[in-house]
Write a structure and sequence with these properties.
It is built from 13 helices and 21 strands. The chain has 432 residues and is of the alpha+beta class. A hairpin with a 5-residue loop joins β9 (128-134) and β10 (140-143).
């Protein structure tokens, strides 16, 4: 059997293991090694690929919901979209959500995902009350900020390398609308983009699409979107119908000319320097989820997302250098997302730090990894780091320089003998 990541690279042979309950999972763990848990297959790289894969997705029961406190208890295979469909009509939303609702709760914890409001709400682990984790010796432990703290800090952002998350209790937030008041600001260059983020930093949500092929005085030109939930009592919620990509696009259809044309059109569609819209949850948070199998746009060879973050003091200079490098290469991305982040947490391998991150999608093609190696050196130069949930090729050396607590994580893995049971292609590549 072959499992592939959302980036469709690499393609590997795997053995799938399914479990019905805790006891059957214990048997799998005791009898197998080179294991990694897998949810809905939306991680971009090789973090959920291994010789033996534990399929956690079928474990998708809602266990309980405390309507008074907003605490939801679910199995780890529950998708974020399941939570939205059930609870948005009742006035509840995720405190932190990434740019897709098609990931599992277990995957959200393992990647310690973040969203458009990290500067005010932090990453996903901040909304996690507790979770149950099955360790390599098949013991089940409860983990939280107060209990088994070392396991909590290692598992949140630990990419599935500490064990199998069975279920979790998540704190939700109250809302009184399914709509968001969105303001779109059209900026002319990176300086204006940074000034706009600073001006609107009190907004709960902010994000920017950035034209990564712009040159000269227009480098860093963007469409910055900021938003807040409305308070109109309109809570009915229904996911949009999908437009599905039925086949792999020809490899040559995505090139510097088509990307440049798309970027020109996308930037040009916004005529005013400032405009306001009322948009739905799906449009604001999950625009790509409306396109089924959108990864086929990149062709049969697949794609990778390159996401890095730089500390606040170095963000402007670092991003300017990276955008200049990408623009010169001609290997642009039409999905280029810039976000502002608040303070880092104390989890060992969590990605966010106070500063700015940029995420770019590139099709797999000749010369791409050489360009990404070049970008790695700029990220290291400015003391940034690469996001493991999106990565498929970063070197051990570059990875280590971005994560100062890597040795704590490695030591914990050895102490609990996790390194003997739970490993992914990614963990072997970067030495964790």
């Amino acid at each position: 059997m072959s499992f592939i990541s959302w980036g469709r690279y690499p393609i590997t042979k795997n053995i799938e293991f399914k479990f019905e309950n805790d006891e059957s999972l214990k048997s799998i763990i005791s009898e197998q090694d080179a294991l990694i848990a897998r949810g809905n297959g939306r991680s971009y790289g090789d973090s959920a690929l291994s010789q033996n894969i534990i399929n956690a997705k079928p474990h998708d029961y809602f266990i309980s919901f405390n309507e008074e406190l907003g605490v939801l208890h679910v199995q780890s295979g529950v998708l974020l979209c399941d939570i939205l469909n059930s609870l948005v009509p009742r006035g509840w939303f995720l405190k932190v959500t990434p740019g897709t609702k098609l990931i599992t709760i277990g995957g959200a914890i393992a990647s310690d995902v973040h969203g458009k409001n990290h500067h005010v709400a932090g990453s996903f682990s901040k909304s996690v009350e507790s979770f149950r984790l099955m360790l390599p010796n098949s013991n089940i432990v409860e983990c939280s900020q107060l209990e088994n703290t070392d396991l909590f800090k290692a598992t949140c952002g630990g990419m599935g390398l500490t064990g199998v998350i069975l279920d979790a209790k998540i704190q939700l937030k109250r809302i009184n609308s399914q709509y968001i008041d969105q303001t779109t600001i059209k900026t002319k260059n990176l300086k204006e983009t940074f000034d706009t983020f600073e001006k609107y930093k009190s907004s709960e949500y902010s994000v920017a699409w950035i034209d990564c092929l712009a040159k000269g005085n227009e480098i860093g030109r963007s469409l910055v979107m900021v938003g807040e939930f409305r308070n109109d009592g309109k809570l009915g919620y229904k996911s949009k119908n999908k437009i599905t990509i039925p086949f792999n696009f020809p490899t040559l259809s995505l090139n510097k000319w088509t990307v440049k044309a798309f970027n020109w059109l996308y930037y040009g569609k916004v005529k005013c320097s400032l405009s306001r819209q009322r948009v739905g949850i799906d449009s604001f948070f999950y625009p790509l989820d409306a396109i089924g199998d959108w990864n086929r746009i990149y062709g049969k060879k697949g794609f990778t997302q390159y996401q890095f973050i730089l500390p606040m003091a170095a963000s402007y200079d670092g991003l300017l250098e990276i955008l200049e490098t990408i623009s010169k290469s001609g290997k642009g991305s039409f999905l280029a997302v810039l976000k502002l982040y608040g303070k880092a947490n104390n989890n060992y391998l969590s990605f966010p730090m106070e500063g700015y991150s940029l995420a770019l999608d590139f099709k797999i093609e000749k010369g791409l990894f050489n360009l990404l190696d070049e970008l790695d050196q700029i990220v290291v130069k400015y003391k940034g780091r690469i996001y493991l949930a999106k990565d498929v090729r970063v070197s051990k050396e570059v990875f280590e320089k971005g994560y100062p607590d890597i040795d704590k994580f490695r030591e914990l893995r050895k102490t609990y003998r996790m390194n003997e049971k739970f490993n992914s292609l990614q963990s072997k590549r970067v030495g964790i």
